[in-house]
Recover the amino acids of this structure.
């Protein structure tokens, strides 16, 4: 695994993990402020952005991603660290916490609940807004062939579904960077395998953890966008099934919180990290 990303700041380490269909630049509006108090490590998830899989003979489940991230942080001499994950990054993040007890000092989950809970609560509204979960997880290279035909149109539709159609959310330069990565066949394949894992191995790992009663062993911040308010049950209530120390907070706006509402994200993250990661 060859990771691509950025490191900056000083102080306790915070690992930032982006979501689909983006890269580490999703944190561009919040990373600078976080770096005033913390050592910020923002990386592209395996296969996303400019991170490259040296071998994909075995599917990159969240368990495998988590192990690679722990190895990366240890190489950077961060034995213990905080994790802030958005979307897919949060799914890799909670798997990291579950599989590596004592490593993560604080975990912030932006915009998601665990995969098992999300799929158990899925209905036609979820399927319409999150159609990519089911399209990209199809086997035998079908979604890769579909993505190859019109990647820009697919990406634009993804951003439309999460209210990111204006330049104040994703500036032209950032949008172009996302498009450039999304056009890469290797990135397309990694994203598809991400979702294949979600509906297969990742789901089974969640089921096993629930059955055994395993929980996240660190404080958890469940930071949800306004569009999630009214969900049954609320995201912070769902996370309390998985952790004993959970605080819930909300941001206005839509799904891409670090880009859509960066000031609100920082207002929630900074006190949480200062209290639990310093």
């Amino acid at each position: 695994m060859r990771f691509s990303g950025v490191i900056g700041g000083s102080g306790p380490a915070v690992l930032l993990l982006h979501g689909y269909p983006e890269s580490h630049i999703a944190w561009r509006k919040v990373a600078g402020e976080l770096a005033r108090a913390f050592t910020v490590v923002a990386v592209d998830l395996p296969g996303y952005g400019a991170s490259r899989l040296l071998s994909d003979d075995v599917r990159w489940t969240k368990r495998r991603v988590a192990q690679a991230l722990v190895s990366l942080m240890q190489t950077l001499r961060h034995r213990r660290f905080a994790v802030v994950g958005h979307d897919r990054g949060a799914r890799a993040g909670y798997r990291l916490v579950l599989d590596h007890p004592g490593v993560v000092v604080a975990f912030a989950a932006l915009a998601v609940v665990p995969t098992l809970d999300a799929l158990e609560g899925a209905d036609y509204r979820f399927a319409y807004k999150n159609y990519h979960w089911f399209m990209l997880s199809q086997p035998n290279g079908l979604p890769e062939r579909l993505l190859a035909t019109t990647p820009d149109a697919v990406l634009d539709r993804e951003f439309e579904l999460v209210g990111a159609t204006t330049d104040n959310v994703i500036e032209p330069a950032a949008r172009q960077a996302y498009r450039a990565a999304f056009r890469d066949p290797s990135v397309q394949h990694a994203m598809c395998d991400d979702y294949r894992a979600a509906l297969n191995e990742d789901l089974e790992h969640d089921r096993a953890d629930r059955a055994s009663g395993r929980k996240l062993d660190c404080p958890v911040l469940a930071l949800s966008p306004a569009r999630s308010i009214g969900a049954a049950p609320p995201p912070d209530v769902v996370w309390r099934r998985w952790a004993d120390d959970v605080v819930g907070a909300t941001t206005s706006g839509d799904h891409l919180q670090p880009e859509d509402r960066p000031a609100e994200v920082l207002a929630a993250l900074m006190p949480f990290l200062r209290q639990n990661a310093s």
Remarks:
- The chain has a mean pLDDT of 96.
